[in-house]
Write a structure and sequence with these properties.
mainly alpha, 2 domains, 6% strand, globular, disordered N terminus, ubiquitin-protein transferase activity, ATP hydrolysis activity
């Protein structure tokens, strides 16, 4: 409250929330470092905003890069991509949903995911700064990927998580060919919007072919593909 004539009644909940947020920010060193890293590393923030539409899309990009060894093989490549995934997941609400006119209350809400990630990844500020340094490398990896790869991996993840096979004909009980008798239906998630909910057997086989072609080395991501192929 800036005016000397202001009374306690003028101090609303938003002012109190702002005070609490600033106090927490000032007294918690790691949280302070996180927000400072976010403010300082705007190049990588803007790159993520430009190249991906949400956290899921960012995770798909990293998954494809890890599975296909798009950035080369070795621990350094794995670390760079893992850092980006952790940074994208932790800072995601701030990256994709923070607006210039956001209130302190909104900022508090968006920081909840960040604080949870910080508990499991205490070096998150350092990860953000390293991602900022590696932005040209991420761009080169992004340029090697096509939309087919990213889309295929996104579909695979949805199928592995939500897919249910169904057997039977939907065309008046008359099967024109055997492939019409088997299809895959995705259960709608309460928190995730799934654009394609139904796959024919032919569409599943086509997706299998794409995944086999674009998947390279033996990684955790490759195991996800193997799960789908099985």
């Amino acid at each position: 409250v800036s005016s000397d004539d202001a009374t306690l009644s003028t101090i609303n909940s938003s002012v109190v929330d702002a005070g609490r947020f600033l106090q927490e920010y000032a007294t918690d060193r790691k949280k302070k470092e996180c927000l400072e890293a976010f403010a300082e590393c705007q190049d990588i923030v803007k790159w993520i905003q430009k190249e991906t539409k949400d956290v899921t899309n960012l995770v798909n990009f990293v998954t494809v890069a890890l599975a296909t060894a798009a950035g080369g093989e070795g621990d350094m490549t794995t670390d760079k991509l893992s850092f980006l995934r952790t940074v994208g997941s932790g800072f995601g609400p701030l990256i994709y949903r923070l607006t210039k006119d956001a209130s302190y209350q909104k900022l508090q809400e968006l920081c909840k995911t960040l604080w949870v990630t910080l508990e499991t990844a205490p070096n998150l500020p350092e990860m953000m700064k390293q991602c900022e340094k590696d932005i040209d490398w991420y761009q080169s990896v992004k340029e090697t990927q096509g939309s087919v790869e990213v889309t295929s991996y996104g579909q695979m993840r949805n199928i592995n998580n939500y897919g249910v096979y169904e057997i039977g004909s939907s065309k008046n009980l008359i099967l024109v060919n055997r492939s019409e008798g088997i299809h895959l239906r995705l259960r709608q998630s309460g928190t995730k919007r799934i654009h394609k909910l139904n796959y024919s057997l032919d569409e599943i086989r086509d997706l299998e072919s794409k995944l086999v072609l674009i998947t390279g080395r033996e990684t955790k991501e490759r195991k996800q593909v193997d799960l789908f192929l099985d």
